[in-house]
Amino acid sequence: MTDPQLVLAEGVQRALAAAFGPEYAAEDPLIRPSQFADYQANVAMSLARRLGRAPREVAQAIADNIDIPGTVEISGPGFVNLTLSDGWLAAQAAEQLADDRLGVPVETPATVVVDYSAPNAAKEMHVGHLRTTVVGDALVRVQAHLGHRVIRQNHLGDWGTPFGMLIEHLLDMGEAAAVAQLEAGEGNPYYQAARAKFDSDPAFNERARARVVTLQAEDPETMRLWHIFMNATIRYFNKVYTELGVTLTDDDIAGESMYNHMLAQVCDELESRGIAVISDGALCVFPPGFTGREGQPLPFMIRKSDGGYGYATTDLATIRYRIQDLKADRIIYVIGVTQSLHLQMLFASARLAGWLPDEVRAEHVQIGSVLGSDGKMFKTRAGKSIKLLELLEEAETRAAAVLVDRDYDEATRAEIGHAVGMGAVKYADLSVSHDSEYVFDFDRMLALTGNTGPYLQYATARIRSIFRRGGFDPAEPHGPIVIGHPAERALALQLLGFGAVVAEVGEANAPHKLCAYLFDLASAFTTFYENCPVLKADSEEDRQSRLALAALTLRVLVQGLDLLGIEVPERM
Ligand code: ARG
Hints:
The protein is an alpha/beta fold and about 575 residues long.
């Protein structure tokens, strides 16, 4: 099956080449939705001046030369209105129904490294990490589905000077008590207690500093304690991942500590090659094009004047590893928008060093902040910080309360509540463009109307119930598909765009486009269902065709939601 927009675009391009010469075959035909046809091509207007002709004349030349499975009309100043034939649409929809991939292309496989989630062990995992986790996991699912070799990298903040005091605090508390607190997600109070002692107790402060030295030297006893601390912390992260249905596992952990032994070498190499220079005692790269307020070159500092390494050093070692060892063709960093300058300087420095070759794509998927109803960062409520796991549990409880059918036993209700609650939270993260902020609001994300996760889950449950009521099974073959009513055309056109949208989401790292597509699909189905009775259709032919369209819609919705990491309960 083929994407209708693509078929029309190629048709217009061939017409342009035939009318004006082969150099116009690559022209963007500017296909847009139209009020008067399925689509319109606006290229006649933009080409007219270059061709030295009137737009309507250009439009006429396109119409005279075009060969598409449908009809052409010229309107207004030079719009080319394009309408696909009912028969073509029906045949394409039938092909999509017969296709396991529902029209999603398999791309030439590349190795795609996706850096996401990456909470810090020394601090609490917060909703910001929730969003990078949810968006990253959707991107991973889309890349894998498009046929790529995906390597997940969870770049945990698991190294650095705070670990001296964190380990000493663990010894003070006793291992078992410390582990219990960390596993319960109490990373923040743990950190604060350690910090308070560090600031007020000179003996503790001294022990903590000494511990940093033995940690840097990877002394076995210190490493044992570090592992106890990290394992307990990771167990908490895993609880959050499991709850969310995120695909990250322990095998994907590649935290900052992993690069520790590469840092000196990174600095030495860049210094000896003259790519990094000493400036005020620190070793810095000055990537071209980065300047401060007074026009002075901005440093990307890889070794502080006291000899310590930092976030920049680790990330340079990391990007080199991902390209040289993991053989990445593309690296996607799903990280907060506030780290944008760091990443731009990282990419520029790595290009300068020759570690990031031109043919490898490095992209920062900037994640916007999640805000509370007060418009401030959503981190705390009534003065105390919100634990992520508790937040997710609250989503489930609230979801269970909005379930439509109320005759569920407790276990079923909890199961559906889980799917709907997680769907709501995840969809809220995914449905707005990843770089914009949004306000975390349970009532809005759990609403059964509007562009929400529960609305789309409910749309699938409604289609399933049509089949149930008629004694049909959506998995069984239905059809043939016949397109007659305008609502059937609109639904078929929307269905056929699925593959192109998934490819675009993969290309542009834009899950919100898949959300918008699925929302439009659910709306097109609603209009179809209001206008075209399925079970009570006038003829068996119509019923079969509409059952096939309903089954196809269900499959596309379920597949689309799955690519977003959203589970679909059979009933709601
Ligand atoms: N741990 C960092 C944070 O919480 C995110 C790390 C992202 N990945 C990276 N390669 N820098 O802000």
